Every structure is written in C-alpha cells, then in structure tokens.
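Summary for the steering committee. One of the milestones for this cycle was to obtain a three-dimensional model of the protein with pyridoxal-5'-phosphate bound, which we needed before selecting residues for the alanine scan. The sequence and ligand used are listed below.
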Amino acid sequence: MSLDQPFDTVDFATRAIRAGQAFDPTTGSVIPPVYLSTTFVQDGIGGFRNGYEYARGGNPTRTSLEEQLAALEGGDRAFSFASGLAAEDALLRSLLQPGDHVLMGNDVYGGTHRLVNRIHVPWGIGLDTVEMGDLDAVRAALTPATRVVWLETPSNPLMKITDIAAVAAIAHAAGALVVVDNTFATPYLQQPLALGADVVVHSTTKYLGGHSDVLGGAVVLDEGIDVRGEDLAERVAFQQFGAGAVSGPMDAWLTTRGIKTLHVRMDRHSANAQAIAERLVGHPKLARVYYPGLPDHPGHELAARQMRSFGGMLSLELHDGAAARRFAESTTLFQLAESLGGVESLVCYPSEMTHASVRGTALEVSPAIVRLSVGIEGVDDLVGDVLGTLDRI
Ligand SMILES: *Cc1c(COP(=O)(O)O)cnc(C)c1O
C-alpha cells in the first residue's frame, strides 16, 4: 500500500495509525519528528517551504494531527486547537454574526452551553435549547435566524441518543447547519459527516487523546460549506490563525500518539461498559442504569443503527442524592474526578461536578445520578468495584 493512497479507501484502524504519519524523508525516522520550531526559514522573502512561515499559522506536527483527524472523520479538513472549547469558539465565530440564532440540545456539554450563553449571547447571538430527540420540538424551535443546530449523541450524563440524519434533514430544510460534538462516540463508533452533519467538533482531551494527559480540541468539516459567500474551512483556518487558540506541537504529538490505538481502546471501553451495565440492571440499590447498549434504553435501536458499539460511558441513578454522593465517594478502582475517556476508570457526581455550571438551567442534572467513565482495566475488577461499593453504601 502506498502512503499516498487516499485514506478514505482503507480501514479505520489503518487510517488511525498511518494517516498524516509519513516517515521523515531525510532520516527515515518512522515516527515523524516533533517540530518545536516557532518559525521557518524563507527561501527569499515569501519563499515558504510547504507553506510554513510561523507556528501559529501552521506547524508540521499539528498538520500531521489534522490530517489524521480529517481521515478518521471522513472530512475534507481538520483544525486542531488548544482545547475542545477553543475549537468550539473558533467554529462558532466562523459561522455566526450578531442576530444569528443557535439551537442546542438541552443536554449538551455544560461548558458548550456556557460558552454560547455567557460569551456569545452578550455579543448578539440568540440561543435556545431543545429536546433533540423530539423532532417536532426541533422543527418548532427553529427560527428564520437559526444558523446552527448543535447536538451531542450519546449525551451527557443520561446517554440520550439523537438521530443525526433526521435532525440534519430538518435543519437543512430550514437553512441551518448541523454541528455534532462527537467526543463521547469518537469517529470509530460514529461518523456524523456520513450521516449528514456538516461539522464535527471534539474535545480530543477525552477518548482521542485517551490517556488523560493532554488537553485539545478539533473541528472537522467537509469542503464547500458556504457561509455568506466564503468557504467555512477558510473561515475556521482564519480564526485559528487570527485568534491563535492553537495546539502546541507536544500536545498535538501526544494526541496523535493516543489516536493510533483509538480503535483498540474503544472496543474494550464498550465491552467493559456493556458488561458492567448488564450486571447492574435490576440491582436493588439502583433506580435505573442509563446505557445505550441495554435493550430497554429508549435510544437503543437508534444507537445500534448509528453506532458501531455503545461506548464507554454509563450513568447510574440511585434512590436519592445522598446515596449517589456516597457511591461517588466510595469506589476504589473508579477514581473520583472530572473528565472521561482515559484508559483509567473514573466516577463523577455530575450535579456538583461536571454539571455544576448548569444548575438552575434546563440542563440541570438530578442529584441521584452518578456517571462512570469505564476504563480498560480488567472487567471483573471493575464490576467487583461497582458491586462492592453498592453493597457498602
Ligand atoms: C470535555 C468536553 C468538551 C470541552 O472540551 P475541553 O477539551 O475540556 O475544552 C466539549 N464537549 C464534550 C462532550 C466534552 O466532554
């Protein structure tokens, strides 16, 4: 197989490992070097080598991550940022102008809602939230000013599943673009662009990086998306360069390194979460288990169509807030911490941790919920920790 072959024709695993990762032609180094240089020598004024001039505008290590991300999502171009929220901010500023309206799922990442509600709304953007799974409600909530419909599936923390293709059809008929935050599913489990979405965003901090050791974000999109007569990719590239929330070379390289094992990790995350969910169904200390891989989950059939497997995130509803709090503070292998998507298992108490910023809004989470980010440790150890904790509390 030639390294020049277009990466959309080869298996996901091959793309994860090879896209954007051509060996260094001068030394044969199998792993492309990490380019720390902030500036690049010009062959005469304006004579840039491969377009590189100054590292805010472009850096070869960042380019290799961006090529890898575009290949995995089946997009034309990808742009890497210092964090997921930096990526989202750059995308929204590329899409919107004062007077435009954003329609968001009522269960999107709390920081995404906060970004628009507290930073973009004061600059003249309109914002509403809606139950994304209710397609009539989505239709009714669209306004002539709606430019963006923003959704997350599976959502956080109740793992609600949204029909990406159906929402895309409704949004497109109303002249709006669809952005999918694909952080929970990752491109291995779900391909929003192929389902009709226009743009994918990621917090690469989570599964893509995969080891809880590097913050990052990405925007991935198709070519030819017109925004007021300009190509959206060019507008995002300009935001990246002009506002400068770029990822540094070490961060980009660590993310690339994590992505090479994404498919293997995701298979194990899904298998472990499925096993834990199945063992917990009907447990007397639980009111409910939220996992799309369970047949009684309301989004199960849709998730089975739209996703390769059901992912590593699940939530438990205990009988009251006090029990949920005790659970979150009593596990031994599952460590109490924000974030998700690393190889190690984490437990989180959303109402006072990840979702504290949305208390009192439509995005508020019940105090009886705990969320598990199921890692890839031994499944019997993980099941034992959860069952043992439920016994003790
Ligand atoms: C963490 C997260 C974000 C924000 O990403 P950062 O890298 O923390 O800025 C956005 N969306 C989802 C679904 C997330 O989990």
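Key point for the committee: The first helix runs from residue 12 to 18.
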